[in-house]
Amino acid sequence: MADISWLKAQPIAHRGYHDMNKQVWENTLSAFSRAVDAGFAIECDLQYTADSIPVVFHDDDTQRLCGIKGDVRSRTAGELGLMAIGGTKDKVPTLTQMLRLVAGKVPLVIELKGRKGDDEGFAAAVLETLEGYKGHVALMSFDHWLLKDLKALDAPYPLGLTAEGANPETFFVHEEAMQLGLDFISYHYGHLPNSFITKERTLGKTIITWTVRDRQAEAYTFAHADQMTFEGFDPREALVS
């Protein structure tokens, strides 16, 4: 297995280092620039546009972030690139724009947001966009079919399962995904510890958590996992005794 110790070396800013969408909004170039300046790794989400371009956006619909109702996948990257996020100067960025900004300065943990039956070419487009990028990158998804696609395409990056659940019935599904030969897991911190994660840790898998929003959750993460994906506070600030 390739060395992925970098994945747990620094806190991972959830959707970039935003300020809970007050002035700096999630998954924007401003949030990514702020994370780079702070030295945090960056977690972000990818959607797939009508013209087959990966863009950095979380939701299936543009209403919450752009104030305009509509399916993100029915629009082109150019159309999304004109849509203001939260009424700010930031527009929906392409993966290419984000890579150009970050330029290998901090690690990237990229989640592909799938839609079953509508993802043909998505994994390939992501890998094509990443080709030649100089910097640490890991790819992950909740969606097993996208992980299978990435594996089939011999993705040269660490691959991870994004998951949650405390019910043992869900663990069988997670274990099926891990049989693809994945390298790490991003798990909901509130569902730890559990037998699935304990087993994977004994097998040497790196475990990161989502989404940590306070010091209590941070302490809980490091009792049961290797690193956190956080938002809403600054992990660099000293704890007040």
TrEMBL record:
CDD domains: GDPD_like_3. Residues 9-241 form the GP-PDE domain. It holds the Pfam family GDPD. PANTHER family: GLYCEROPHOSPHODIESTER PHOSPHODIESTERASE, CYTOPLASMIC, GLYCEROPHOSPHORYL DIESTER PHOSPHODIESTERASE. This is Glycerophosphodiester phosphodiesterase. It comes from Ensifer adhaerens (Sinorhizobium morelense).
